Amino acid sequence: QEQLVESGGGFVQPGGYLRLSCTASEFTFNTYVMGWYRQAPGKDREMVAIIRPPNDLTMYGDSVKGRFVVSREDAEHAIYLQMNNLKSEDTAVYYCYANGMWGKGTQVTVSA
């Protein structure tokens, strides 16, 4: 059974940056919208960014526009989330999503 594999979470101070990655099968990568969602303690899961093949059309949640960038890498069958100017409210578990599948999640903690 296919799995989405995430990496890149961690601890960073406010104003810092992190880059998340998610790898999928070639079929999933080339066929479906892939994206990043996040869930903070006590809150609902929310969309962070999605990217649509084949033209790499993107969409972002309002709270991350101008700070986060989602991209695709064909050779790696991967999507990335570059997170800049991180804020404490970005602290959450970040999940990769594609075609009804969820990754296990990676923790991002932003704190002084």
Verbal overview:
The chain is 5% helix and 49% strand. The mean pLDDT is 95. The strands form 2 sheets. Strands 2, 4, 5, 6, 9, 10 and 11 form a 7-stranded mixed sheet that branches. Strands 1-3-8-7 form a 4-stranded antiparallel sheet, with no helix packed on it. The protein contains 1 helix and 11 strands. With 112 residues, it is mainly β. The radius of gyration is 13 Å and the shape is globular. The protein starts with a strand and ends with a strand. Strand 5 and strand 6 form a beta hairpin.
Tally the helices: 1
| N-C termini distance | 40 Å
Q: What class, by secondary structure content?
A: mainly beta
Average of per-residue pLDDT values = 95
Record field, number of beta strands? 11
H/E element sequence? EEEHEEEEEEEE
User: In percent, how much strand structure appears in the residues?
Assistant: over 45%
Radius of gyration: 13 Å
* Shape assignment: globular
Largest sheet: 7 strands, mixed
Unreliable residue runs: none
Tell me the helix content: under 10%
Please outline what is shown here.
With 112 residues, the protein is mainly beta. Helix content is 5%, strand content 49%.
Q: What is the topological layout?
A:
Layout: E1 5-7, E2 10-12, E3 18-23, H1 26-31, E4 34-39, E5 46-52, E6 57-60, E7 68-73, E8 78-83, E9 92-98, E10 101-102, E11 106-110
Parallel strand pairs: 2-11
Antiparallel strand pairs: 1-3, 3-8, 4-5, 4-9, 5-6, 7-8, 9-10, 9-11
